């Protein structure tokens, strides 16, 4: 089976082709960072317009590079939610129009399901059940994943997501727009013990997260250093290292608690923040004492992409969780779709 996938939940336009025999055949992503950087955040209208400008071009490029044609496609998969309404509508309408023109099914996929299943693309030995730490700019959740389509949220952020905290602090430091990865680069030359950045809810037995207080504490320290004209490169590197360590400590500690509480000895880390090298190294080392197996998606599949969407559709079909004959073309989207309701539309 060959599935053409589309992802347009926020500011990345993704087109991918997945083959059940070959795996990910092609995976193209257009990032809009240059468009939004002067605004300090994603501008929904500009995001929608750029999706509209790029999605057809990327689709043609995907077929050109893969050597496949529209006649080879068995189904189309697309992100229906959650995300920005306008961005979702561009991907949804384009994907379903393409499916309609080929007289094949269009499969709506939950964006977070795509992320949490993405490590299975490159880890054939990964077995259910597992704990999923989904950590990105928009979400920070711990889930008990029993099987495809059976997800139980056991912890989530009460305010900011971890990736959001990274991005907002990066902005306060004058780094590139929405690029917490710049903090990781700076942190390499910093000392995480110079500044004390709090770890909210670290000592709480709850599996929930909170990053708002951490972000505020970092903001106060940055402004204090700036007011004293002490915010030089060394201070920036030390702040970056301290912020990174605090966030990662929280993520790992809550994951440790989740493993202890559930007894599930396999953990999957997915989402944009999963690309952080220190998180990867420290997570593997910290969970050794529990004899845990830890899995990450490939770096290129950590951020938003269409490969995870087409792959999630394939898994749902493989496990008979979609009735292809019952799917209807429907241009509505689900900007606030809760993962617990993921099976409600199939």
From TrEMBL:
Residues 24-310 form the Gcp-like domain. It comes from the Bacteria. Substrate binds at residues 134-138, 167, 180, 276. One of its GO terms (molecular function) is tRNA N(6)-L-threonylcarbamoyladenine synthase activity. It is found in: Cytoplasm. Keywords: Acyltransferase, Cytoplasm, Hydrolase, Iron, Metal-binding, Transferase, tRNA processing. Fe cation binds at residues 111, 115, 304. Coiled coil: none annotated. Binds 1 Fe(2+) ion per subunit. Its cofactor is Fe(2+). GO terms for cellular component: cytoplasm. It catalyses: L-threonylcarbamoyladenylate + adenosine(37) in tRNA = N(6)-L-threonylcarbamoyladenosine(37) in tRNA + AMP + H(+). It is an enzyme of class 2 (transferase). One of its GO terms (biological process) is tRNA threonylcarbamoyladenosine modification. Pfam families: TsaD. Its EC number is 2.3.1.234. InterPro entries: ATPase_NBD, Gcp-like_dom, KAE1/TsaD, TsaD. Belongs to the KAE1 / TsaD family. NCBIfam families: gcp_kae1, T6A_TsaD_YgjD. Required for the formation of a threonylcarbamoyl group on adenosine at position 37 (t(6)A37) in tRNAs that read codons beginning with adenine. Is involved in the transfer of the threonylcarbamoyl moiety of threonylcarbamoyl-AMP (TC-AMP) to the N6 group of A37, together with TsaE and TsaB. TsaD likely plays a direct catalytic role in this reaction. This is tRNA N6-adenosine threonylcarbamoyltransferase. The gene is tsaD.
């Amino acid at each position: 089976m060959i599935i053409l996938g589309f992802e347009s939940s926020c500011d990345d336009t993704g087109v991918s082709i997945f083959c059940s025999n070959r795996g990910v055949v092609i995976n193209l992503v257009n990032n809009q960072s240059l468009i939004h950087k002067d605004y300090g955040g994603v501008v929904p209208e500009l995001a929608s317009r750029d999706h509209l400008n790029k999605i057809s071009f990327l689709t043609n490029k995907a077929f050109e590079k893969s050597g496949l044609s529209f006649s080879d496609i068995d189904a189309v998969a697309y992100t229906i939610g959650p995300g920005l309404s306008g961005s979702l509508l561009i991907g949804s309408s384009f994907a379903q129009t393409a499916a309609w023109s080929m007289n094949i099914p269009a499969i709506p996929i939950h964006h977070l399901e795509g992320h949490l299943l993405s490590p299975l693309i490159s880890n054939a030995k990964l077995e259910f059940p597992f704990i999923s730490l989904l950590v990105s700019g928009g979400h920070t959740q711990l889930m008990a994943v029993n099987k495809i389509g059976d997800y139980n949220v056991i912890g989530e952020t009460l305010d900011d997501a971890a990736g959001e905290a990274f991005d907002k602090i990066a902005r306060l430091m004058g780094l590139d727009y929405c690029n917490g990865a710049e903090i990781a680069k700076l942190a390499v030359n910093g000392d995480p013990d110079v500044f004390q950045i709090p770890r909210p809810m670290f000592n709480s037995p709850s599996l929930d997260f909170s990053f708002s207080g951490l972000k505020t504490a970092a903001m106060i320290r940055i402004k204090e250093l700036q007011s004293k004209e002490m915010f030089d490169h060394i201070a920036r590197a030390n702040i970056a290292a301290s912020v990174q360590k605090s966030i990662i400590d929280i993520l790992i500690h809550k994951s440790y608690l989740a493993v202890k509480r559930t007894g599930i000895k396999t953990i999957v880390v997915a989402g944009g923040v999963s690309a952080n090298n220190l998180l990867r190294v420290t997570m593997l080392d910290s969970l050794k004492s529990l004899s845990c197996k830890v899995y990450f998606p490939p770096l290129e599949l950590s951020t938003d992409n269409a490969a995870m969407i087409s792959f999630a559709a394939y898994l749902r079909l493989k496990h008979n969780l979609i009735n292809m004959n019952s799917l209807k073309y429907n241009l509505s989207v689900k900007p606030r779709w809760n993962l617990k309701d993921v099976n409600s539309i199939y």
